[in-house]
Amino acid sequence: MTVSRREFLQWSATASALAATGCNLSTVPTKPAPKRILILGGTGFLGPATIEFAQARGHQITMFNRGKTRPDLFPGVEKLHGDRDPKKGEGLKALETGTWDAVIDNSAYYPRMVAASAGLLAPRVKQYLIISSISAYKEPNPENGTEDAPLATLADPAVEDMGKDYANYGGLKALCEQAAQKAMPGRTAVIRPGYIVGPDDPSGRFTYWPVRFDKGGEIAVPGAATDPVEIIDVRDLAAWLVHLVERGTVGTFNACGPDTRLAWGSLVAAFQKAGNPNAKPVWIPADYLAQQKDIEFPIWAPYAGETKGFHTWRNDRAVKAGLRFRPALDTVKDTLAWYKLQEKAEKGRTKLAGPSAEQEAKLIAAWREAARAKG
Ligand SMILES: NC(=O)c1ccc[n+]([C@@H]2O[C@H](COP(=O)([O-])OP(=O)(O)OC[C@H]3O[C@@H](n4cnc5c(N)ncnc54)[C@H](OP(=O)(O)O)[C@@H]3O)[C@@H](O)[C@H]2O)c1
After folding, report:
1. What is the pLDDT of residue 347?
2. Strands across the sheet with 188-193, in order?
């Protein structure tokens, strides 16, 4: 099982989201023609960031979801309720009327459901953006892979569960992409993000690191400083999605950041800079870690073997289409600031991935002992 399979607020005020993002403003008209955007989802992580940015650009939003997750978000936004699965409850009934310039499909997990929504909406929308994932690629991933790399396949393409350890997630995403493209040929943008990170992230994966460095002391850090790492700040991704809508861009894009190769050591330096001054990384090499059971570190993946290509996806096509990246240090600082606020307010979104303090201390002690024994 690989890392990619194992892992995978409302934050700033609208105005500050626009100002802080500062991404595409140089490449899009200052006052874009207002677009009507339907977001299938909108209440998780990427949806709220996209809505904030789109609203700040003057666009009109409709959300479609079950009304289960954070129903109080965006009181002024049009909300349609139903289920992606036409077999469940009212299904897609709420989408039977209405016209939109673009759909952003954030909740595409099963191809039958994507086919249903894209098929239903095709006559009434111009553009369909489907949020897929780099997990849609076949594993092991090639190094420096482009959008033309082979896609994951499933033994049973009709399967409708994620499987053990989300084993079906990638293959299902690939099929979801194809379902959208089939329903809206030439009008689809397929977006394949790597780790989406930043304020409001409910996964606790990236957030683990700024919070751990803020706590200080000796910190177990996996791998080597030269290992590659790819992340994309949710606000940069959100701004780019809006940019694609403003331009009517279609195509298939890896949405991984940043623009130049980020070394894990540089990201660790950013964690240090934003964290407690007494934080001290203790580097634990990948080959030693591979022998340890029951300890996992989020985000990082060994730059070797099956995961060598995992953090090396090329993003030239997305950059050419306007994707821009804020400095990693800004993401780190903002994530920490958000976490501290949320810790008090919204317990559910403060769960952190990563080892416990006991596991970490035990690992550091064992590694030191092994290094001593080795001489
Ligand atoms: N996080 C990452 O690192 C990462 C990396 C690569 C790709 N992605 C992809 O990014 C996308 C964005 O996810 P997000 O959660 O941040 O999006 P979002 O637009 O913020 O929220 C998605 C919302 O969809 C709604 N939903 C889920 N199942 C539904 C159903 N059956 N019918 C109707 N509504 C449904 C849920 O609201 P209700 O509960 O109210 O229905 C959920 O809150 C996902 O497709 C994910 O696979 C994420």
Report:
1. 65
2. 78-81, 60-65, 36-40, 100-105, 125-131, 188-193, 251-255
